[in-house]
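May I ask you for just one protein sequence along with its backbone structure tokens in two labelled lines?

_____
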Amino acid sequence: MVKKKHLIFAAVLLFTCSVAFFIGRGCAHQPLETKIERDTVTLHDTVPDLAPVPKDSARIKYVTRWLPAKHDTVVSTEFITLHDSVAVEVPITSKHYGGENYDAYVSGFEPSLDSIFVYNETQIITNTITQMKPPNKWELDIVGGIDYNTTQKNYTPYAIGELLYKPNRLQVGIQGGVIKNGDKAEPIIGGKVKIRIF
């Protein structure tokens, strides 16, 4: 027959485990930890255009320049060279050169673009996302061992199963098993409350 003190002990144990369970459950849970590693590689590609062809050409204006002119004149028996200046209208032309990744404009008298080098910068950004799963909050253990009673000077084997709930540093659970007492095995039941320091 179950004694009254055993019922009171079981009720107090159940109440203590329930309170500890809900206190631990109310504490902040560990979120799923996300770790992002970023790696950037910068590359420079050289795109040469050694003989660019203009896309369009337009004469935009004329400028007047004075250029020396040479005249030969015979005076009596002497040959005299006279130097003079003459006005010349010089056409100014604008040319547009273009490619996939550049535009160039030149202007002047018969202008031309000999070559152009375009340095493209390319950045390759690699993101490595690692998600770390938090540890399991439930733990089921089976513990066995032998106790030595110094008073009775005998060994007592036992086997216990534990179910623990670990929301954070607080751990609560119940345990039950059997322990050999003399020639017979007796059932045992209990609760466990632990606080992890480290």
User: Anything to note?
Assistant: The CA atoms of residues 108 and 195 lie 86 Å apart. The helical segments are 4-26. The mean pLDDT is 77. The longest helix spans residues 4-26.
